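Notes to self, GntR family transcriptional regulator:
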Amino acid sequence: MNKMLITIDSTSEIPIYQQLSEQIILGIAAGDFQNGELLPSVRQMADEIGVNAMTVSKSYGFLREKGYVVTDRRNGTIVQAQLPLNPPFVQELTERLRLLAAEASIHQLSLTELQQQLAAVYPSEEEEK
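result:
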């Protein structure tokens, strides 16, 4: 496994399990975690980042629910980096983008600037390798 640096901000208003989930998703998109790769056990991850094992378990549960990982009792938690495009995901994405676009508009960010921001953060094929 590539060593991805996961950092948790204990002073953030964002729950720790959500911070961890988001960082793992970002790591999958960046290629830090490969399809089929085994994530550390709940206990191991908790020790590595200094959080409660229940917090890691909640994060892994969220990732499993969204399809980013699968859990095999014998092998552990396995990354699923290649997910099919499905209508529920597209609907959720559209709703989240609608809110972000509204906030961008309120802050007077033009559509062109918003597109540039998206292009800057969207993982390229080169980064995934």
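- The domain at 16-79 is CATH 1.10.10.10 (Arc Repressor Mutant, subunit A).
- The two ends are 14 Å apart (CA to CA).
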